[in-house]
Amino acid sequence: MKDVKELWMVLVFLRARKREVEGRLQEAIINLLPEDKQPEMPWDLFFGTAWDCPTSPTSHCVYDRRKDLALDRCLFCGDPAER
Ligand SMILES: [Zn+2]
Q1: Torsion of the alpha carbons at 44, 50, 51 and 55, rounded to the nearest 10
Q2: What pLDDT is recorded for position 11?
Q3: Cα–Cα distance, 48 to 11 (Å, whole number)
Q4: In angstroms, what is the span from residue 8 Cα to ligand 1's centroid?
Q5: Element of type H or E holding 11
Q6: 53 C-alpha to ligand 1 centroid (Å)
Q7: Ligand 1 centroid to residue 4 C-alpha, Å
Q8: Structural Rg of the chain based on CA atoms
Q9: Which residues are registered as beta bridge partners of 45?
């Protein structure tokens, strides 16, 4: 029982930390985008990991899930997530 409680506490901590880091990353990415490419809300950003992106600051493609539901245009290189 104690192990479960400790694991739960670690998970709660990591989730909170993940949200904090995601928020900072979203804000940093938005500041790098021209105004016409900025998402409506920070959490609209989708950070891909499948494809290298030479112009993205994360080195992977980044999409706007709200405006580009199918992930057809990376905000940095313009390539689709499905290649
Ligand atoms: Zn890209």
Answers
A1: 40
A2: 98
A3: 23
A4: 36
A5: helix 2-32
A6: 4
A7: 41
A8: 16
A9: 64
Residues with CB under 5 A from ligand 1 (ion): 53, 61, 74, 76-77
Q: What is the pLDDT of residues 16-43, one digit of tens each?
A: 999 999 999 999 999 999 999 999 999 9
User: What's the pTM?
Assistant: 0.83
Q: Annotate 67-78 with b (16+ C-beta within 10 A) or e (fewer).
A: ebeebebbbbee
Q: How many residues does the chain have?
A: 83
The torsion angles phi and psi of 51, rounded to 5 degrees, stand at -120, 135
Which structure tokens are listed for 68?
């580009």
Single-letter amino acid code for the residue at 21:
V
- Token pair listed for 26: 């979203």
